[in-house]
Amino acid sequence: MKHGSQGPTRRSILVNGVRLSALGALAPHAFTGPGRGDGAQDDRVLVVLQLTGGNDGLNTVAPHGQDAYYRLRPTLAHAPKSVHRLDEQVGLHPGLGRLAGLAKDGLLTVVHGVGHPAGDRSHFRSLEIWHTAEPYAPVGRVGWLGNLADQLLARDPGSLPALSVGGRSSSLSMRGARATPPVVPDDRGFKLSHVSRQIGKERGRIAQARAGAPSELDFMRRTARIAYDAAERMSAITAQEPAVEYPNTSLGKELRLVAQLVRGGFGTRIFHVSFGGFDTHASQESVHGALLGRVDAALGAFQRDLVAAGLHERVTTLVFSEFGRRARENGSRGTDHGKGAPVLLLGGALPGGQLGRVPDLARLDDGDVPVDVDFRGVYRQLEEDWLGLKSFSKQRIDAPRLFG
Known about the structure:
Number of strands: 14
Mean pLDDT: 85
Helix content: 25-40%
Shape: globular
Largest sheet: 11 strands, mixed
Strand content: 5-15%
């Protein structure tokens, strides 16, 4: 069993690639797999992909039918013939060909002009707002996805309701009041066949910890047992090859793992994945194109994998960034921090097409794409209508209808 330089604590334990943080609420129970609820929504899955850095929404979903787009972006605007047209006014970035194919199949939904009313251009503050769904309140210790994980855990105390895939630490959005979901740095954490003897030895040592041991040791013993049980189940599931080929990138591997766990019936209902580099203040065209190309390849494979497995109506994926970019390009052939931007949603239960108003670039909000849709309205539908849980936001805010 590995642990950090300061020793294992209640806050973080790493067992064979699975980082369990603050899992005291889980420790008394063995991992049981899928939840035991009886509702129609109990098998639905939410995947959240965070594009960190402030993705340029205007070049991701380009308003190619507006003359103002070309006046504001003389070097960055995409030519009308280069975009993947959603209609005569709007088209996807030239590098999003796979997502364009999903759009034709009704599996991609674009919601225009999404953001938060506070409109903060700080990366850190904007992420706090998106993670906690609280634009005006001081930063709390519970995130909107952590709140959902808490509710699922209360229904089935032996479950593993949420999982962060990629990275080394969980985002604020995943922190719950009772427990913070585990972090799986990458898919190597599940390859246990080569270390089975070591695992058996460690598991035996942990299991033999004497009754009545200090609470910290007891916590470690119980938490590690959960991690080993979960890791073995994950290892068996991820040994199955997907039906489609994924790109050999970090994002491709992470989404491949998510699809494997869903397809294998692992039982986790909420997944969080992040992909960074979108703070494109200079030389945006090549950098942004390369980033979106990776997103397109990974998301395209992920969604096609779900379709091949007949799971595309059970899984909804939200793709968001902390803010959009300014409408006018800057002097470095890049764009600066802005406000409103589109969010993308993938899945067979969604309506497909475009929702909300396409931004009118002749009527900007102090040079920014205005926020027409409060992101909390999107969250509420994912929380209540999709997962059947209570919304984290204290206010009931409407947004274009996503389900039903």
